[in-house]
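User: Last request for today: this protein with adenosine monophosphate, please.
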Amino acid sequence: MAADFVEGWLLGQTLGEGAFGEVKLVINNATGEAVAMKMIDLRKYTDAALSVKKETAIQRSLRHPNVLQYYGKRSHANFEYIFLEYCSGGELFDRIEPDLGMAVKDARRYFRQLLSGVEYLHSRGVAHRDIKPENLLLDQYDNIKISDFGMATMFRFKGVERLLDRRCGTLPYVAPEVLKEPYRASPADLWSCGIVLVTMLSGVLPWDQPSSKCKNYEDWCIGGVLGSNGPWKTMTAGVLGLLTGILADDPQNRSALERVQSHPWMSTQSSDDIDYGSNLEEFSISLSQPLPSGDHTASLIAHETDDREMTCFSQPIACDDLLLASQMNLTQSASQGVFQKLVKRMTRFFVGCEYAQATERLTAVLRSMIQCQWKISQTRGITVTTTDNRKMQLIYKVNFIDMDGKLLVDFRLSKGCGLEFKRRFVQIKKSLADVIIQGSCN
Ligand code: AMP
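Assistant: Here's the final one, the structure of the complex with adenosine monophosphate:
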């Protein structure tokens, strides 16, 4: 059984890794409610405390079907724990096939939801500043949830907008003005949404960065995309028109978000182009997973002593008696596997061989890949560290899990570009085709 984390709550599997540590699944053993918990070790990440405070202060005021719901946080023994809506559908990049993308109807649906979330953020004066497929989670109904507010900031307060000047984000996704000068928040976020759409439709990033240092970007600026070999080659005139408006170099010439939403391509509808939750008026019923009932989740969340006066409106006041430090029990190891089936991920397969042979085969493939280093852990895992085509660090973990008498090989991105990670996964999967049990993935 998994460890009893706080009375009545079990600590489940690791969902992922962020800049400041792991994200774990926590499950209520009576009701089955699932919550994601970010664990931040303040001794290890000495600069994390301020970031966490800022991030949670922004996130706690947000409530929208396409924005990851924040439940609260607690502190205990040098750790900060942030409780968030659990997304069992994984990350958006996982749905993007390298060099292919995804079905247009799916891309359109995700894009609509992304814009809806971003429109809401901007209406609340919040700029996200790091929109990319790795930060777009999917819930059990495949709805987009904008996550990771680590770089978010307020750009409008009491109706007064301020320009931003911090150069932040992820190079292939940032708007050109972010690299140059003080910039307006909304057009910059919208630009990143446009790049997300390009990746969804083509499976590639259009350029490494939007500057004169990059030929692909220069080509785009002079309008040399039509008929070229880039990501544009399979796109229709309709969506190219839409993208031309979003990816305008000069933010003054960029389409406004409302204009993008009313573009004809956005409303093209095919019979199976169903937008889950789009006609739901109340946030409470459009949530893909119910807000955990107050009585239960309250037990997880500590007093937010540093900013207690702010109300976390999705949660009732936390119960004192369940918030005592002594009730936290993180030393027991949680069992792997108990909740393994809850997370949807494309980057995995079953193999028809034993663990020893599987690792031998995998490491042989890794040996053939350039600039690739790996470390085998004692808990049946391999951490692979490499660099991608943009010379950016790429770290992913491979876990071997016994499941129903078969061996599941599960790949998870730890750091770096999701698309590049998927490219490596596809390469490895091809090389191991003879031991993979066909049709067994996911
Ligand atoms: P972050 O620290 O927000 O960058 O999260 C790191 C990784 O943990 C993400 O890329 C996801 O794979 C996973 N993760 C984060 N939050 C959640 C959540 N609410 N539900 C499920 N998985 C999550």
